[in-house]
Specification:
single chain; alpha+beta; Ribosomal Protein S5, domain 2; 2 domains; eight-stranded mixed beta sheet; four-stranded antiparallel beta sheet; 8 helices; globular; binds ligand DP6
């Protein structure tokens, strides 16, 4: 069992590399059982599980160069342009992780980042972005300590990424990652994500996620505000309990391929996430009329054809349509003929499950 102390870098006297650069391509992820509610320091109120995606990714290069004065110093470029408005979030992240990777303050850091998906698509880039940066920083640590195991590398990368954005802890590996302590999962931890233990039924291999971009605007509710809504929420305790139960049930379904249970939990989790937002104070409705149109169309299609299609939502109006590889043709036709018309500018992204971050 790893503890917080295991991630503290304690090799202070070592000669640090002068300079270098690392690049990582890091995917986004979509939660099946949702993380909604957190406590200090970036610990989840309940465990969550997600599919790691493939087509939606962030590509980040971190250049580092030794400097004379100690202290954090960095620049951030997004799609080639200097982005000072991203600085506060990165600064908070770097301050939080300094205890675990103190060498970051010995360097001038230049971060160059871009996403495969449009910035204004409503797809959160904090998961892939923070995970990419964590991996680049871990690569500096690995250069200092080349004997580090890949297991420790991934765990600590997930641990650091979590301190940037909770869901980022689930973007290091794939295709299924659990973050948060669950009583039946020995190795699960609030500190970092772990790969789903044990074999997964083949129906979930190469699972598809078509993301329907219903509302391409900026997020209406930031995740920080959103998570805080769960403090003093009247249904919070029950919700956290339910997430634990749903994780047990979905783990069984993932092993035995029970699609009915899988679909039921996924859709229930999506609607519960939104129900939590509707019943908090202040309250929010993040779905748009077209979100509901799409959900109803999916239900009609499923009733009529028995297709294993279902939806999930993140904290916004976009709809993730999930379906198995074997049924992709029929479901793709349905999406194109019946659902695309509800997307803003008919925009959608065909994604699928992937295997996690890659060094470039
Ligand atoms: C609805 O990971 O974005 O997507 O930890 O504050 O950065 P912070 O929050 P974030 O929250 C994600 C919430 C969610 C559900 C999920 O991904 O599990």
């Amino acid at each position: 069992m790893q503890q917080e102390q295991d991630f503290i870098f304690n090799n202070a006297k070592i000669n640090l590399p002068e300079q270098g650069s690392f690049t990582f391509k890091t995917p986004s992820n979509i939660a099946l059982v949702k993380y909604w509610g957190k406590k200090e320091p970036q610990l989840p109120e309940n465990p969550s599980i997600s599919f790691t995606l493939d087509a939606c990714f962030t590509l980040t290069t971190l250049e580092y160069k030794k400097k004379d004065k100690d202290g954090l110093n960095f620049e951030i470029y997004f799609e080639g342009k200097k982005k000072d408005d991203f600085k506060p979030k990165i600064a908070t992240f770097l301050k939080r992780i300094q205890k675990y990777v103190p060498f970051v303050s010995e360097y001038n850091l230049i971060i160059n980042s871009r996403n495969s998906f449009p910035h204004s698509s409503g797809i959160a880039s904090s998961a892939s972005g923070m995970a990419a940066l964590a991996l680049c920083i871990m690569s500096i640590e690995k250069e200092i300590n080349p004997k580090m195991s890949s297991e420790y590398f991934n765990k600590k990368a997930s641990f650091l990424a979590r301190l940037g954005s909770g869901s980022a802890s689930r973007s290091i590996e794939g295709p299924l990652v659990i973050w948060g302590k669950h009583k039946d999962l020995d190795k699960s931890s609030d500190l970092f994500g772990i790969k789903f233990p044990g074999p997964v039924h083949e129906v979930f291999n190469n699972y598809h996620d078509t993301i329907l971009l219903v509302d391409e605007g900026e997020k209406q509710v930031s995740s920080t505000v959103g998570h805080n809504l769960m403090d003093n929420h009247p249904f919070a305790e029950k919700r956290f309990e339910q997430a634990n139960e749903n994780l047990s049930k979905i783990s069984t379904a993932l092993k035995n391929g029970d699609m009915k249970i899988f679909i039921n939990i996924i859709e229930s989790e999506a609607l519960t996430l939104h129900a939590m937002m509707m019943t908090s104070n202040p309250y929010f409705i993040l779905m748009k009329p077209n979100t509901l149109e799409i959900i109803n169309k999916i239900w009609q299609f499923r009733n009529k054809t028995n297709a294993n299609i279902c939806f999930t939502l993140d904290a916004g109006a976009n709809v993730h349509v999930l379906y198995p590889e074997k049924e992709k043709e029929a479901i793709n036709n349905f999406i194109i003929s019946e659902l695309i018309k509800y997307c803003q500018n008919k925009n959608y992204i065909n994604d699928r499950t992937g295997f996690g971050a890659k060094q470039i």
